Amino acid sequence: MKQWRIIAKEAIARASIIGKFLCLLHVTDAYVLSSNHVVGPSMLPTLNITGDVVLVEHLSHRLGKLGSGDLVLVRSPLDPKKTLTKRIVAMEGDKVTFSLDPTRSHSSRSLVVPKGHVWIQGDNLYVSRDSRHFGPLPYGLIEGKVFMRVWPPSSFGFLGE
Amino acid sequence: MAEWSRSIIPIIRGFCLLYVTNKYLGTTVITYGPSMLPTLNITGNLLLVERISTRTGKVQPGDIVIFRSPDTPRKVVCKRLIGMEGDQVTYVVDPNNSDECKTIVVPKGHVWVEGDYIYNSKDSRHFGAIPYGLLEGRAFWTLLPRKDFGSLAPKPR
What we know:
Distance between the termini of chain B: 61 Å
Organism (chain B): Hibiscus trionum
Number of helices of chain B: 3
Shape of chain B: elongated
GO molecular function (chain B): serine-type endopeptidase activity
Keywords (chain B): Hydrolase, Membrane, Mitochondrion, Mitochondrion inner membrane
Strand content of chain B: 25-35%
Helix content of chain B: 10-25%
Oligomer: heterodimer
Function (chain A): Catalyzes the removal of transit peptides required for the targeting of proteins from the mitochondrial matrix, across the inner membrane, into the inter-membrane space.
GO biological process, one term (chain B): protein processing involved in protein targeting to mitochondrion
């Protein structure tokens, strides 16, 4: 009986160390820095079509320090299980002029971004589904700012304007 | 140095556990304002909110939900869920001035929320259907005031 108690105690001690580490990892991942695998053509030429691993920081959007030109990770307003990576083109109150389908026509529309929202667009306007399709994005859906790419190693470096 | 760190560690562990519970299981919120009369008081209620339903997609129309405001991202708002994506919702546009009704279909990935007291509530009738990603939890129990202690029944419209 005593054997089992000793084994159980040791198992709990080891499990609690792992638990504490996972806790720390989770808090860092959600509030400081995380990595993300980005796939798709909508951010060419900034991000590759075959997939990049980027580092996302979760501090700027909580402090309100995002601005136009920033690459952000957002939760999709169309499918809450998916996250998208796009660029902020305009903040609330700004006037944004956009062309819905650059392959078809030159006509463009303008609107003012409402309060509490941002306007996001992919760098590759021809194949990106973004605010031109689903409208301005509520600020609450922004999850972090993409600032660096770590894979593939040939394109390692900071991602800027 | 060792003595001091020995008493800090359980506090950090306690905060960790509290944080994970708050983020993934449930939390309490204080609501105030007239938009959910008569269900919730104008002066304030302490509600118990669980986060599992919204994370697993099991919220139903009729539930009272809390969500991040689409207008003011620092505010969290409490309203009743009226329609999920694909549902057809009929609502009174401005009940104070006219009886005009509108019917819309809730777009994909969005939900329609309205306050119980539509005469004084800023909800989806003003800012449109909100993306599902803004939902933060489902309020299911009232803790304070004492006389309202009890479960918050889902009320389909």
